[in-house]
Design brief:
The complex is a heterodimer of chains A (250) and B (434). By secondary structure, chain A is of the alpha/beta class. Chain A has a domain at 2-90 and 166-249: P-loop containing nucleotide triphosphate hydrolases (Rossmann fold, 3-Layer(aba) Sandwich). Chain A is 40% helix and 28% strand. Chain A is built from 10 helices and 12 strands. In chain A, the strands form 3 sheets. In chain A, strands 6-9-10-3-11-12 form a 6-stranded mixed β-sheet, with helices on both faces. The longest helix of chain A has 15 residues, at 97-111. Chain B has one domain (2-376). Chain B has 9 helices and 20 strands. The longest helix of chain B has 19 residues, at 2-20. Chain B is globular, with a radius of gyration of 21 Å. Classes of the chains: A alpha/beta (250), B alpha/beta (434). The A-B interface holds A 50-53, 73-75, 77-79, 83-84, 86, 89-90, 92-95, 99-100, 103-104, 107-108, 111, 143, 160, 164 and B 380-382, 384-393, 395-396, 399-400, 402-407.
């Protein structure tokens, strides 16, 4: 599904190398977790894969199936099936959440050659998905993420994911700022989307999210590289001993 | 200094005499003849503005002063219906500044009296006598607005509206532009009697060059909702003056949407004379290329407990210029004043220009006033967030443009009109992309 090979990335504006040869493959149907200390390049990886400005790929590749992601605009990547759940979902005053969701769903449908959804069908669709995530009508009416609590913002991210039905989901520290109940709600939302045709890359600092979203593979990232990969037990090891040990043995 | 002042005044008078060459004071009944003569006398002491005048530094007055207007092509709307078309309303149509009875509805409406200025002007005595030119005169201090005095002196058409109850449906003034060289004056007066309520709609470019004055007098507890769309003709020019006087507990809400137009200067003067009155004036102006839009607003708080709100948004690109001059004046006795002023521009490229002059002048000690003026580009994080969800860059930009002007549009209380204006704006943005 997602195949990253020897990816090197520097900041566009300054001569600072962030990713120094990331190689990673997430097959369809699997959940991979990336853990790592601050500044290891986890968020950069998620931004580069989704097409944010400000980065320059100096070497390597990132493919989604047989599509070269790095060649595409952010919206084309989204239409191809990439989805990034933001660590800090952006507040957009003046744009209603509902308008935003409908525009996004229809833009992707259009890009894939499907018919746009009617207002009535869309309403049914969004209500059903919102209900599962305990997102009420008021949150749908309000401007995108404006005045949302941390938990509400993250639930709104998962709602978008559920509606856009991407092939490859990247969750960038989706657990940050969540209390136990919210974490459970968000995790349930993610788990409901797990299926054999969809891949997940879950970026997190903490093992606790992985109790709820159980990964198939855990990668440890440090210094712009994947330094170790293993099963879920690797996350427990990190939780117990920290990153320092692992980085020494790597 | 005195010499410089004399020189400036001489220039202003020269500009006026050049303008007056093509104008003759219209005839009418006693009351209006008096008002016109007084206006001309006032005008002669002021002259017409020059680029040296303090409130004309951002906007060149020459094309508004000139004896003849520059021609302006008539915009072809194609299949598109005019704004507010689907709304049940009393239509009053002017073509290039001249009343068109054939296109207008019957002017007898329950709860309101509507009269053409021409008819009222023939009467010996008229209720509008104390308003016509009087609120405009009040609005000449402390800043002179010569084009409005010119209008009071020379306008022959327009409507006088007296609202005695709650109007059942909006009154809609439609300004069609059909002649490429038309030069139009219109002078409208609205008197909202105690407890009366009206929605006044205005739309259309009106003429190649349009000079319009709207005088509004709202008695205690009266309410006027004003919604205006200034037409899409690219080459038109307009100078408009809205002069409002409000008694206690009255409400005035005004929103103007401007897209296109080579030059638009919208002046607003509001006098809050009675306690607990509320005035909200807002505008959204969007343009590119040869587009110059000027909002010059003056709100005078002269009674306790009044609230005023100014929200002006401009979206500019490809050399377009937006200007905002806004002032809140709080007089000595106007305690508990709540004054708010916000003017913002969104510059879509490096060529666009926004000039702002926000002012507060406060003589009371127990007031809450704020003003803020900003200009900036599209927020990159917002743009990326939208694009990451599959929304293409242009659509995402348009969404953010609509979002940017939303705060001004919120001043349109009636959802029907607000939604229609948003739809129109979406359509306009879509067409602009080509």
């Amino acid at each position: 599904m997602l195949k990253i090979d020897n990816l090197h990335v520097k900041l566009e504006e300054e001569d600072k190398q962030i990713l120094k040869g990331v190689t990673l493959e997430v097959p369809a149907g699997e959940v991979h977790a990336i853990m790592g200390p601050n500044g290891s390049g986890k968020s950069t990886l998620s931004y580069v894969l989704s097409g944010r400005d400000g980065y320059e790929v100096t070497e390597g590749s990132a493919m989604l199936g047989d599509i070269d992601l790095l060649e595409l605009e952010p919206e084309e990547r989204a239409a191809a099936g990439m989805f990034l759940a933001f660590q800090y979902p952006v507040e957009i005053p003046g744009v209603g959440n509902m308008t935003f969701l409908r525009t996004a769903v229809n833009a992707q449908r259009k890009a894939r050659g499907q018919e746009e959804m009617s207002a009535a069908d869309f309403l049914k669709f969004v209500r059903a998905k919102a209900k599962d995530l305990k997102i009420d009508a008021d949150m749908l009416k309000r401007p995108v993420n404006v005045g949302f609590s941390g938990g509400e913002k993250k639930r709104n991210e998962i709602l978008q994911m559920a509606m856009l039905e991407p092939k490859m989901c990247i969750l960038d520290e989706t657990d940050s700022g969540l209390d136990v109940d919210a974490m459970k709600l968000v995790s349930d939302g993610v788990n409901a989307l797990r299926d054999e045709n969809r891949g997940f890359l879950v970026i997190t600092h903490y093992q606790r999210l992985l109790d709820h979203i159980v990964p198939d593979v855990v990668h440890i990232m440090a210094g712009g590289r994947i330094v170790k990969s293993g099963g879920p037990e690797l996350a427990l090891e990190v939780e117990k001993n920290g990153y320092a040990d692992l980085m020494e043995t790597a | 200094m005195a010499i410089a002042k004399e020189k400036l005044l001489a220039r202003r008078r020269d500009a006026l005499s050049a303008r007056l060459e093509t104008l003759t004071l219209p005839e009418g009944g006693a009351w209006i003849t008096e008002a016109r003569k007084t206006a001309l006398a006032r005008l002669e002491t002021m002259g017409l503005p020059t680029g040296r005048d303090e409130y004309w530094r951002f906007t060149k007055p020459e094309s508004l002063n000139a004896a003849e207007p520059e021609p302006a092509a008539v915009f072809d709307h194609g299949e598109e219906t005019p704004v507010f078309d689907a709304v049940e309303r009393t239509r009053i149509v002017f073509v290039d500044g001249v009343f068109d009875a054939a296109q207008s509805d019957d002017l007898s409406v329950d709860g309101i009296e509507i009269e053409r200025l021409e008819d009222a002007a023939r009467a010996d005595i008229h209720w509008a006598k104390d308003i016509y030119g009087a609120i405009e005169t009040r609005g000449q201090t402390p800043v002179e607005r010569p084009h409005a005095a010119l209008n009071t002196a020379f306008a022959t058409d327009g409507v006088l509206i007296r609202v005695t109850g709650k109007a059942e449906k909006p009154v809609s003034l439609i300004y069609q532009h059909k002649n490429e060289t038309s030069d139009a004056f219109l002078h409208n007066v609205v008197r909202v009697e105690a407890g009366g309520e009206l929605t006044l709609l205005e739309n259309g470019p009106a003429a190649a060059r349009f000079n319009k004055v709207l005088e509004v007098d709202i008695a205690a507890g009266g309410r006027l909702h004003h919604i205006r769309a200034q037409g899409r003709d690219h080459e038109r020019r307009a100078v408009t003056g809205m002069f409002v006087r409000q008694d206690e507990d009255s409400l005035f809400k005004s929103f103007t949407l401007t897209v296109n137009g080579r030059l638009t200067r919208n002046e607003i003067y509001v006098d809050l004379e009675g306690p607990n009155a509320s005035a909200h004036v807002a505008g959204a102006a969007l343009g590119h290329g040869d587009f110059h839009h000027d909002d010059t607003v003056f709100i005078r708080h002269d009674a306790e407990n009044c609230e005023s709100r100014q929200v002006f948004k401009k979206v500019l690109q490809e050399g377009a210029i937006g200007t905002f001059q806004g002032k809140i004046l709080v007089e000595r006795g106007a305690q508990k004043t709540d004054g708010y002023q916000k003017s913002q521009s969104l510059l879509l490229d490096d060529g666009a220009n926004f000039l702002a002059k926000p002012e507060l002048e406060i003589y009371a000690d127990d007031v809450a006033c704020s003003h803020g003026s900003t200009s900036g580009a599209i927020d990159k994080d917002m743009l990326f967030y939208l694009r990451a969800r599959g929304i293409d860059e242009k659509t995402a930009m348009d969404l953010l443009v609509i979002a940017f002007v939303a705060e001004a549009m919120e001043e349109v209380e009636d959802e029907r009109f607000r939604e229609e204006l948003v739809e129109r704006l979406e359509g306009w943005l879509l067409r602009r992309r080509g």
